Amino acid sequence: MFEFLRRGKSLDGLGFLQADMHAHWLPGIDDGAATLNDSVAIIRDLVDLGYQQLYATPHVMADLYPNSSATILAALETVREAAQNQGITVPLGTAAEYLLDEGFLQRLEQDDLLTLPGNYLLVEMSFVSAPPDVHELFFKMQMKGYRPILAHPERYRYYHTTFDQYRFLHERGALFQVNLLSLNGHYGKSVQQIAWKLVDEGLVSMFGTDAHHRAHTKELRQLLGNRRFAALSKQQDWLNHHLIK
Ligand SMILES: [Fe+2]
């Protein structure tokens, strides 16, 4: 059930979301945790924040981080073992955060994709521009039986002045996952404003920490005192709940 508001104003933790579905704590395979110790420290912080299940979603980018499903799953086993040895009992899983590049299209055609429970597929776009065939790509994912989740839509600044593009994508089946730290202003004022606007317009289905390191998990604590954020814990049934296995 929900973590209730302390004195009606601030939250005890992020337990109302139950599962974190976007984070970079697998060690040494992207720009997140560098070492196994970093991984365990981030996981411990997320557990302390109240999460009951955690998923790692390392970047998969043809140019920068050409991770394969096999390397990701092997990294998860290493982290699971280390976490278990340190008494961490929260279930740990993995999917990936796929950049919509040419490599992605190949993986989609070969069904070589790691998904969250329920066939949810986390994807991201370049911060410079959307792929020219973005609508077709989301259509293809759905035709293949995936439920695509667009990671941090609020961070694609090229959509900020064309907000209708968000509605258009959403109407065509793209689920939106906002970063919790965007609500806190971590990525700047305009990203923060768009994040809240997406929430207020009912376009958001899930929240993720997108935690890459402990500076992120520490900053997540600051969000708990934000009254506007606290109100979200009672606002709707965020889809994060569906990822509890
Ligand atoms: Fe991410």
Structure description:
By secondary structure, this protein is of the alpha/beta class. The protein has one domain: TIM Barrel (Alpha-Beta Barrel), CATH 3.20.20. The chain is 38% helix and 14% strand. It contains nine helices and nine strands. The strands form two sheets. The protein has a six-stranded parallel beta sheet. Strands 1-2-4 form a three-stranded parallel beta sheet. α1 crosses α2. The chain is globular, with a radius of gyration of 17 Å. The N terminus is likely disordered. The chain binds fe (ii) ion (FE2). The site of fe (ii) ion has 5 residues, from loops.
The gist of it:
The protein has 245 residues and is α/β, with parallel strands linked by helices. The protein is 38% helix and 14% strand.
